[in-house]
């Protein structure tokens, strides 16, 4: 079986123009939008690449006029309609973040045209990101009506600083590749007609380099992102919480109709105006989260254990940084509870306290 045959099952193209350098190419309809099948495979190709002795470097790029326009409307609507798809996509989003970090092979992204959503995750989680000066980069989550959670809250402050990250993520302002380079969001910006040539030049340097030294340096640098695991876990949970909220419906409709979003969620009531019934609903929500959180925590511990066993060189550091993500997951439930009243002392108070203590003891 040839090298490319190993990747022929993927819903995106694979090419090899230099021995050791694999190119993954988004090549689909609607500006390479990420549909359910692409989203299903995208997180796990990095595990395959990591174990492939014939691949030393990866270039990821888009065909046609875009890198990737992000998740398709159909993928978003299916999550809104089916809880099973929602949890599946959430798990895939989580795995994409960690699997790109854990892939020992250096990843180079060549970004042109629109780069949005899951495509933007791949573009910016690459070890070296090269953008065309005219590329259009935007994290569109809040424009859609959900929290920015698939990588941005954890990664953007590390890349371009908290002040710029907050401005760009809260306003959904689109920036060019040239501006992205200026603020440090991407590694470099070049003219579009030199984009692929430059990406291949950089990949060639990495291919000719000391692969073990490069892999270990990447591992060390990516501990910055693993240290942000609690932020990532909480932001991911809050993003998918929003899929069931009111703002995403108007956000999706405005995207389809190519107009400004007009809808807003009902403003939160001041705490003093909330009744005990509101508090009781929140306690019930927190308690209902416990079985799912317990299962998720068990899965997370197994993941941590497998990674520690696989790479004993940094077992204590990896165990510590990844275990901290348990707190981020727990806090995703606590943040929901903070939107409602704090129950007064009494039966409700102790029921809430018991629910929180059970959550906290898991971490």
TrEMBL record:
What family name appears in the similarity comment? Belongs to the enoyl-CoA hydratase/isomerase family.
One Pfam family, short name please?
A: ECH_1
Give coiled-coil spans as residue ranges.
none
CDD domains per UniProt: crotonase-like
Q: What is the lineage of its organism?
A: Bacteria, Pseudomonadati, Pseudomonadota, Alphaproteobacteria, Hyphomicrobiales
Q: Which InterPro entries match?
A: ClpP/crotonase-like_dom_sf, Enoyl-CoA_hyd/isom_CS, Enoyl-CoA_hydra/iso, Enoyl-CoA_hydra_C
Q: In its UniProt entry, what is this protein called?
A: Enoyl-CoA hydratase
Q: Name one GO molecular function term.
A: catalytic activity
């Amino acid at each position: 079986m040839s090298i490319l045959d190993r990747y022929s099952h993927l819903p995106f193209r694979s090419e090899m123009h230099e021995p050791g350098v694999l190119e993954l190419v988004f090549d689909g309809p609607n500006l390479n939008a990420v549909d359910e099948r692409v989203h299903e495979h995208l997180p796990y190709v990095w595990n395959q690449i990591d174990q492939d002795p014939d691949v030393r470097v990866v270039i990821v790029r888009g065909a046609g006029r875009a890198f990737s326009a992000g998740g398709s409307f159909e993928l978003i609507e299916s999550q809104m309609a089916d809880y099973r798809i929602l949890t599946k996509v959430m798990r895939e989003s989580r795995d994409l973040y960690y699997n790109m970090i854990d892939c020992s092979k250096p990843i180079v992204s060549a970004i042109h045209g629109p780069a949005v959503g899951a495509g933007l995750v791949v573009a910016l989680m690459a070890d070296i990101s090269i953008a065309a000066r005219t590329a259009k980069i935007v994290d569109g989550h809040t424009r859609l009506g959900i929290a920015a959670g698939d990588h941005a809250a954890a990664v953007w402050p590390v890349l371009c600083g908290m002040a710029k990250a907050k401005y760009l993520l809260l306003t959904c302002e689109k920036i060019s590749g040239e501006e992205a380079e200026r603020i440090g969001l991407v590694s470099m910006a070049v003219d579009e007609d030199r984009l692929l040539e430059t990406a291949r030049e950089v990949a060639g340097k990495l291919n000719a380099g000391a692969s073990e030294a490069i892999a270990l340096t990447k591992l060390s640098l990516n501990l910055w992102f693993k240290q942000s695991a609690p932020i990532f876990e909480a932001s991911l949970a809050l993003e998918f919480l929003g899929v069931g909220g009111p703002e995403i419906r108007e956000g999706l409709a405005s995207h389809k109709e190519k107009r400004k979003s007009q809808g807003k969620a009902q403003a939160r009531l001041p705490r003093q105006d909330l009744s005990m019934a509101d508090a009781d609903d929140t306690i019930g929500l927190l308690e209902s989260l416990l079985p799912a959180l317990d299962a998720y925590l068990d899965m997370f511990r197994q993941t941590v254990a497998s990674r520690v066993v696989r790479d004993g060189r940094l077992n204590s550091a990896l165990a510590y940084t990844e275990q901290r993500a348990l707190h981020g997951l727990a806090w995703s439930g606590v943040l929901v509870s903070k939107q409602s009243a704090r129950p007064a002392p009494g039966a409700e108070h102790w029921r809430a306290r018991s629910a929180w203590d059970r959550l906290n003891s898991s971490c």
